[in-house]
Amino acid sequence: MKVHLDQVNKSFFKGKDDKLHVLDNIDFEIQEGEFVSLIGPSGCGKSTILKLIAGLDAPSSGEVKVNDAVVKGPGNDRVVVFQEGGLFPWMTVLENVTYGLHLKGSSKQAAHDKAMEGLRMVHLGNFTDAHPHELSGGMKQRVAIARSLVMDPDVLLMDEPFAALDEQTRLVLHKELQHIWAQTGKTILFITHNIREALTLSDRVLLMSTRPGAVKQQYEVQAARPRDPSDSVIVDLEKQVMAELEEEMEKVLKEEFGDDYNLEKSHVRDGDRSDMGSHI
Ligand SMILES: Nc1ncnc2c1ncn2[C@@H]1O[C@H](COP(=O)(O)OP(=O)(O)O)[C@@H](O)[C@H]1O
Ligand SMILES: [Mg+2]
User: Fold this and answer.
1) Distance of CA 45 from the midpoint of ligand 1 (Å)
2) CA separation (Å) from 95 to 77, 119, 156, 216, 260?
3) Global pTM value
4) Which of 22, 148, 203, 205 could cross-link with 219 by S-S, CB 3.0 to 4.6 Å?
5) For residue 159, how far is its CA from the centre of ligand 1 (angstroms)?
6) DSSP H helical segments within the chain, as ranges?
7) Can you give the pLDDT of all 280 residues of the chain as single tens digits?
8) Hey, what domains does the chain have and what are their CATH numbers?
């Protein structure tokens, strides 16, 4: 299923005469079955783009189209996976995954079978009766992914789904997500502040500029799959993306720190450069 943002602008009203221009003439397509990542400084409008595609908000001008039909609201063809999976704590893993299917009108047996299939895909077939508090962060996100997959959407919208996880868990989930994507052929839009994560998973990475967010640059990732994050194609691209992003980050930091900016600058530059942290 193709997604098209056609000259999309978005502003939020802050007061009577004041508005915040968040998205500036965003225009891109995601092809059916393509895996695209969005990266950019914090506050540049990444989540806003995702919400517009999900139909949870509407553009101020321009159109969001899914398979040439203008998005008017949420639909079963698009589902969102958030950073905090949003599982219902009082339900078991299985109940969490069947919940949406029941809402959709599936029979009890069909919902059960479908949920088991989804849970097996994320290797949680043995945890059906557990409650979310019994699961690790990585397992919770896998349940959230299973819950989305069983709805059989055409487009999976993922907003920093692995941001709260430790590095090891994240690497495992990268493998799982790549496998799921290869098996299901879903169209995926993935938001992350981890450049290597974006490059490891995606066919294409869109880099956004500081607010008002616009697509500043795009990178085709032509590394072989399944991907190895230490592949030289990925490592080389990472340097390019980082250099480009650093420019945007400086603009954000200057705005946030004001006169303290020069003090903070050396600290930021000495940090782990691949994961540029919450500023991205
Ligand atoms: N519903 C809203 N009302 C007002 N301002 C909003 C709303 N949603 C987002 N914003 C503002 O829009 C900007 C972009 O937000 P967001 O899309 O969440 O950025 P990102 O995901 O790139 O960090 C931020 O400055 C944020 O405060
Ligand atoms: Mg966001």
Assistant:
1) 6
2) 21, 11, 21, 42, 50
3) 0.90
4) 205
5) 13
6) 46-54, 93-103, 108-121, 137-149, 167-184, 195-201, 232-257, 261-270
7) 699 999 999 999 988 888 999 999 999 999 999 999 999 988 999 999 999 999 999 999 999 999 989 999 999 899 999 888 789 999 999 999 999 999 999 999 999 999 999 999 889 999 999 999 999 999 999 999 999 999 999 999 999 999 988 899 899 899 999 999 999 999 999 999 899 999 999 999 999 998 899 999 999 999 999 899 999 999 999 999 999 988 888 877 887 787 776 766 665 555 455 565 666 6
8) 35-57+71-77+153-279 (3.40.50.300)
Closest-lying ligand to the alpha carbon of 42? 1
Check residue 118 and report its DSSP letter. Answer: H
Q: Is 75 in the pocket of ligand 1 (CB under 6 A)?
A: no
Copy the structure tokens of residue 116. Answer: 């088991």
Rounded to the nearest whole angstrom, what is the distance from the C-alpha of residue 189 to the centroid of ligand 1?
18
Cβ-proximal residues to 166 (8 Å cutoff; 6+ apart), any chain: 137
Among 108, 111, 168, CA closest to 137: 168
What residue's CA is closest to ligand 1, atom 27?
A: 43
- Which atom of ligand 1 is least distant from the CA of 48? 17
- Residue 220 per-residue DSSP state: E
Number of H helices, E strands in the chain: 8, 10
The position carrying tokens 């490592």 is: 235
